[in-house]
Every structure is written in structure tokens, then in C-alpha cells.
């Protein structure tokens, strides 16, 4: 059985990484850099080999954005560690609802979802229901 590190030397991963970089137009997905690109793994579901990861789990990054992304994702996990399960579920529901908003709208929406999710367990559960029922978007003036 291959170690985790050995899996990233497997020809299937190398081919997958090249495919992802080509699909991104050979550029960092956070800037227009085209040198020293690598594929950053945003999340890694259990039971999945690296070459089987969905496109959504992968992002082409230059070295600077890869470092920045890794740091930001670690900070996000640190913040999430204080959330109740209902708070985390409210965040997930809110993120799914917000996927169609503009960047400016997402910023305001994220602040409100974050505040709702950080609330007490009971309040977070109530916020989750409001988010699911679209009342959260309606209260912000979004359809």
C-alpha cells in the first residue's frame, strides 16, 4: 500500500494535476501568474484517492497564493472550532444560499450568517431554520 506522500508521485495524480492546471488556463486561479503552479487541495474527503478528487476540491495556485490560502484555511478551521454543530450547519446552509450572490452581497451575507452561527446553540438552530426558509435572504432584500 502506498503512503500518502507516495500517492502524489503516482502517474494518476500527476495526470490529474496537469488536467486541472490546463482547465484553469495555465494560470493561478487567484491571480494571473503562470509560473511554478501547483494544485492546492482545499479539502480531502475520506476514502478518495488524490486523483479522484472532484474539481471543486482543487485550486490552481502560484506559490504566494498557495501559502496564503493554506494560512487562511487554517484560520477558518480555528474559528469554526468554537461553533456548535447547529452553528456549523447554519454556516453551510448560508454558504449554499449565498453562492449566487455578488461578491459585495456575499460579504454582507457572510457577516450576518457568521453572527447567527456564533449565537447560542438554540439561537443557531433557529437561525439555521431561517436560512433554510430563505427568510434570511428576504430580510436582506435578496430574492
What does this structure look like?
The chain is mainly alpha-helical and 143 residues long. Helices cover 57% and strands 6% of the residues. The protein has helices at residues 4-7, 11-23, 63-80, 85-98, 103-117, 121-132, 135-139, and strands at residues 38-41, 58-61. Strands 1-2 form a two-stranded antiparallel sheet. α4 runs antiparallel to α5 and α4 (85-98) runs parallel beside α6 (121-132). The longest helix has 18 residues, at 63-80. It is globular, with a radius of gyration of 18 Å.
Mean pLDDT: 82
Order of helices and strands, N to C? HHEEHHHHH
The biggest beta sheet reads:
2 strands, antiparallel
- Rg computed from alpha carbons, rounded to a whole number of angstroms: 18 Å
What is the percentage of strand-forming residues? 5-15%
Number of distinct helices = 7
Distance between the termini: 51 Å
Q: Which segments are poorly predicted (pLDDT under 50) over 5 or more consecutive residues?
A: none
In spatial order, strands of the major sheet run 1-2
**Globular, elongated, flat, extended or rod-shaped: what is the shape?**
globular
What's the helical proportion of residues?
A: 55-70%
Classify the secondary structure makeup into a structural class: mainly alpha
Please count the beta strands (DSSP E, at least 2 residues each). Answer: 2
| Assembly level | single chain
Amino acid at each position: 500500500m502506498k503512503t500518502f506522500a507516495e500517492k502524489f508521485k503516482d502517474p494518476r495524480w500527476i495526470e490529474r494535476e496537469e488536467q486541472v492546471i490546463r482547465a484553469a488556463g495555465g494560470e493561478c486561479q487567484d491571480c494571473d501568474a503562470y509560473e511554478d503552479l501547483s494544485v492546492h487541495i482545499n479539502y480531502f474527503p475520506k476514502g478518495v484517492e488524490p486523483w479522484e478528487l472532484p474539481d471543486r476540491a482543487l485550486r490552481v495556485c502560484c506559490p504566494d497564493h498557495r501559502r496564503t490560502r493554506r494560512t487562511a484555511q487554517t484560520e477558518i478551521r480555528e474559528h469554526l472550532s468554537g461553533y456548535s454543530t447547529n452553528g456549523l450547519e447554519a454556516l453551510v446552509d448560508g454558504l449554499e444560499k449565498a453562492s449566487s450572490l455578488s461578491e459585495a452581497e456575499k460579504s454582507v451575507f457572510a457577516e450576518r450568517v457568521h453572527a447567527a452561527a456564533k449565537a447560542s446553540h438554540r439561537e443557531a438552530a433557529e437561525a439555521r431554520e431561517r436560512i433554510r426558509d430563505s427568510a434570511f435572504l428576504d430580510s436582506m432584500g435578496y430574492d
